[in-house]
Specification:
2 copies of one chain form a homodimer. By secondary structure, chain A is α/β, with parallel strands linked by helices. Chain A has a single domain, classed as Dihydrofolate Reductase, subunit A (3-Layer(aba) Sandwich). Helix content of chain A is 20%, strand content 31%. Chain A is built from 4 helices and 9 strands. The first copy, chain A, has an 8-stranded mixed beta sheet. The longest helix of chain A has 10 residues. Chain A is globular, with a radius of gyration of 15 Å. Chains A and B meet through helix 4, strand 6, strand 7, strand 8 and strand 9 of A and helix 4, strand 6, strand 7, strand 8 and strand 9 of B. Strand 7 of chain A pairs antiparallel with strand 8 of chain B, so a sheet runs across the interface.
Amino acid sequence: MRPRVIVYIAASVDGRIATADGGIEWLKPYESADYGFDSFMKGIDGIVMGRTTYDQVRGFGAWPYDGAPVMVLTSRRLADPAEGVEAAKSPRAAIARLEALGARRIWNVGGGKTIGAFFDIGAVDELRLFTIPLVLGAGPMLVAGTRRPATLRLAEHKLHAHGVVEQRFAPDDA
Amino acid sequence: MRPRVIVYIAASVDGRIATADGGIEWLKPYESADYGFDSFMKGIDGIVMGRTTYDQVRGFGAWPYDGAPVMVLTSRRLADPAEGVEAAKSPRAAIARLEALGARRIWNVGGGKTIGAFFDIGAVDELRLFTIPLVLGAGPMLVAGTRRPATLRLAEHKLHAHGVVEQRFAPDDA
């Protein structure tokens, strides 16, 4: 059985994951609560993300994902990648490589095109969506550029501090 | 005090209100449950919508909003408008005209640009968002083209049938 792929992500009420310039500072006021991230990360042994997300996280300074192998979806070379980071040309290639490295639970970090590409091949096994009570009105979407809709099953929903609602979805056929 | 403006709308998990071609047939499987729409409509005495939404609803056949005055945000003429339908050039003009017609509670039907334009002038008093457990991946957004983010306050959240989660938001300063 291939590794399980989990999208764990925050979005605005209008389904955006960043401002138009890619900014995520709007998340700051909501960060003080416990959304179960540490416990989630303890179960993760592989990470996949899109090129834009990677370049942004790389620009933050210290690489935050030491220890877990990371696949970056990109057709371009990664200059000076952080340790454990590799390029992958497709979702399938990323999953296969992480599986070869022993991963059983993969965090799909995003962004929207990467999440969409995984939905397109039916490779999102869980979506944990944290809706931040805020309208951005512009900026990249949670899911972008998919070829077909995907029906989901709401497995759980939960109210966190700050009015943040978590919805946990599984594929409808699961 | 100006009339209260309420957005009551369904969106996909990824914040889209229609497919890329404007279709809403994906809502059909979820329509059999009671989302409180009839009771909501009983309290509505004015309606505002964008031009694209109007043209689409007009194309459905019988005009569904008999009785309540409807403002359509548009700079173009409305050919053969349904009874009670008028054109308005701006959110403020629409609100003022509906107020003059005695409206106290206005339903902002959408689409995303119309909702965004109302957020831009601080004229969304309540947002009732029904998240349908489905990813569209493409199509118009719940809120589009706003000039600034708006923080909200989660007033209520509720699980409906079919795994539909309702979140009811008020302006953060309310």
